[in-house]
Amino acid sequence: MKSSRNASIFIDREALATLALLQEGLLAPVTKLMGSKEAREVDERKEYRGSSFPFSFIFAPAGRRNEEILQQAKPGDRLDLVEGGKRVGQIVVEEVFPIDPAERLKNIYGTSDTSHPGVQATLKRLGRFAVSGEYWVQFEEVARTKECILKKKRELKAKRVSAIMLAAKPLHRAHERLIRLSLENSDLVVLFLLKPYSKERFTYELRYKILDHFVRNYLPKNRVIIAPLENTYIFAGFNELILDAIVAQNFGCNKLVVGQNHAGLNLYYDRNNLKSIFDNLKGINIEIDVISEFVYCNECKTLVSTNTCPHGSHHHIFYHADSILKLLELGILPPAVLVRKEISAIILSHLFPNRFDNLEKLFADLIPNSGLMEQHSEEDFYIELMKLYQTTSLT
Q: Which of 125, 249, 282, 307 could be 286's S-S partner, Cβ–Cβ 3.0 to 4.6 Å?
């Protein structure tokens, strides 16, 4: 560019986070933006430098203005990266090349059908031209998470580090059992809490508060870390678990714990041996621990593994997060067998603030007390109400 001032490429927070993951080495063996030749080879072979990688890593920002800038750019030009009106990075152009957005979507999602919500969202932010070259971005959150895990590993001299990827939407009893089981065979467990870039009522901040409450009150907290994971669009497709394994490995974990009912596992039998998507991967050296699905059995009267319970599925209560979340969004207190009552109380008091006109009257009328004047919160009320639900002498 002849101008003394660099041209600008405008990106959103999600693109910035994705570039930061690459910059911090968390997608290795991929460590740079791919040019047209490399991108084509990776999309065809599903591997990069001898290791499995599900699709090419390219940077193709959407928007008419961005496309005009990229079409005019020449090798060696410096383009500023701008997010939210601020300069957050820069790229030195090596190559600009056209891409087929529909083909790109197929590589990520397995389909380009716009009825798929992920395809629809990604299509809006995917341009027709990609740019490769050396770049840098300012996004401290990823580096901070990386350093936090490294520091904890050094502190504990941890050799067995397990990773669990969690949406915790909401955190339920089966999640709790999975985390405890992982702790049995680990020096350190890293709970990667997925941090999406779409607006939702059940926010990341609320989910972090819940998970933090569980870790601080019910686990040996010195052996558990909650780490935010930038859950950008590259993780949204059917290759999610492959990328989870790559990221966990690059964060310093040597085991990834996955529930058997995870849709991305693609479980199948080969000569009576249970296989999954991980059996055909190359260069990913993290151990994969597939845990049986947990259910509540109304015959066993406890939380059990589907592999060890002798009773049929008609006796089982399944921990389907969507259904549990539906109860909470409707303002219904889930049974404690599904969600710990303290956690339900946190969620409901957040989703329905100032719900009760006269909280103290409800306490006085419905809840046993010590006889002393006390101040109560809505969280307290939900917890005490759940105790009443669990009273059985008249049921």
A: 249
